């Protein structure tokens, strides 16, 4: 039986025990939702939230052969595929599944008339790949229906798809190639996590990469006729590699790597000589993504500069950078070049505007908005854009206090305002100022300030910063939250006596750890799909993830590391948590099993603490269905009203 199904069984086996251990638990089941000790949502709160919960965005997935755009957006419960034929045109919905879809990839021009996408069941992340035929308007499964499949990449001819799969043993991720009839053949079957990067122009070679950790990956060139694998990295100098792609002439590769410095640079490698050069050395920030035009004339790339995206366009014929029209300040997703290389699709998102699809006409240097997503009828001019602040923490760099970046959403008025600290997951991720309707509700409706820190271990600030929380340095990141509490106490407009903390996944661990170490300085905390014990987490997370997480947190099989992980785990320090806690979880979570939530709920309640508990039977690592997300958001706002504001 798959481990995710076992997790689901454990969730329901353990839930009734709460009532036996704590007779005052009020347990309610409604459809796929189980809640404990969560009061009924007041109608007044539901009405205030409704507009914020009915904002929506749209994202570009790529160009279809007829020149229309494939996009994702949500009209019902989940994100689905839509086609957009022109700027401001009607969104033609193509898929109508109960579950959200992902990994949309349109076939290249001249190939099949359709697209590939991924879909799981109930958030299990055991994605299956499907081909949607635009001629027949039907979808058919290409994978085995049992394994975990991801990262589809079309061949240049558009007749085959390379992808990663756990089909062989459920633990390792191999590379397969599948045709549109579902015939799948292995290309790389080795220990570890292997992913596809791209095909050569003649489809005779494949770029693949073995992912070791966020700090290290190992790219190879695979000859499909012989199976020979040629390494493209220096074994003596571990580095991270991302987004490898062949040049149009097949003579070289473009890729992103930190092989020569702190940041991830866009680089070019000549295959014949092995010589490399940087195309972004003048930008002291990470390059996060790039896209090549089919004719090899243009290369677009995005740099993440202190959390804000900047788009660059290179003319590969002469090496010069092309001036682009002014773009909104915010976050960018590259949607790819059109088949004729004359248009570039983008997804643009800002703190005050949900994601929308834009297109740049390269000949006219003109930006056109193709979608205008809804903001629930709200006055978008009232949305608050955060400011970037930096606060000192406990250690030093070059004789000066290290500073931690954070985004600060400040309500209108004089204060003093209560505060919610929102900690991102990962930990190898970065909080960025994208559109967040929940943050806007807190700031505008509840007059709560929101602080979103990027504690040590976050990406985007160089590989040294990224590794500052690894292994035995885990609690140094928690100290960064203590330093933020010190900073809050020094701000006259903030109320240091009313501070709450929330976060998901690894951010959920940070919530629990903060409540352990700073219990007396916090009012309450919300932990969503968070780790409560590193040892049980590592033992119970899905097998295909286990070694990847050991690279970050440490190997629990080593006695010394196991003792350390047990010592710092919030579960083993739950007696120090006396403030109200809200725990929310998906029953099918393959990353952080539901048992992590159940054991911290049981422990805190066993010490007399107040815990609200929420479990969705049809969700995994987060809440992808609108009705579930809406209920969680309403419950979390009620939690803050009750325990942070005292309303």
Mind sketching the topology for me?
Layout: H1 3-21, E1 27-30, E2 33-36, H2 43-53, E3 58-63, E4 69-74, E5 79-84, E6 92-93, E7 101-106, E8 114-119, E9 128-133, E10 138-141, E11 149-154, E12 160-165, E13 174-179, E14 184-188, E15 193-199, E16 205-213, E17 216-223, E18 229-231, E19 241-246, E20 252-257, E21 265-270, E22 276-278, E23 286-292, E24 298-305, E25 308-315, E26 320-322, E27 331-337, E28 343-350, E29 353-361, E30 366-369, E31 387-397, E32 400-409, E33 417-423, H3 437-444, E34 449-453, H4 463-466, H5 474-489, E35 494-504, H6 506-517, E36 524-528, H7 534-540, H8 543-553, H9 559-568, E37 581-586, H10 594-606, E38 611-616, H11 626-645
Parallel strand pairs: 33-34, 33-35, 35-36, 36-37, 37-38
Antiparallel strand pairs: 1-2, 2-38, 3-4, 4-5, 5-6, 7-8, 8-9, 9-10, 11-12, 12-13, 13-14, 15-16, 16-17, 17-18, 19-20, 20-21, 21-22, 23-24, 24-25, 25-26, 27-28, 28-29, 29-30, 31-32, 32-34
Helix pairs in contact: 1-10, 2-11, 5-6, 7-8
Keywords: Aminopeptidase, Hydrolase, Protease, Signal
GO molecular function: aminopeptidase activity; serine-type endopeptidase activity
Signal peptide: 1-19
Written description of the protein model:
Helix 1 (3-21) packs parallel to helix 10, helix 5 (474-489) crosses helix 6 and helix 7 (534-540) packs antiparallel against helix 8 (543-553). The protein has a domain at 3-53 and 399-645: Rossmann fold (3-Layer(aba) Sandwich), CATH 3.40.50.1820. A 10-stranded mixed β-sheet has the order 1-2-38-37-36-35-33-34-32-31, with helices on both faces. Strands 3-4-5-6 form a 4-stranded antiparallel β-sheet, with no helix packed on it. Strands 7-8-9-10 form a 4-stranded antiparallel β-sheet, with no helix packed on it. The protein has 647 residues and is α+β, with helices and mostly antiparallel strands. The two termini are 47 Å apart. It is built from 11 helices and 38 strands. Helix content is 20%, strand content 36%.
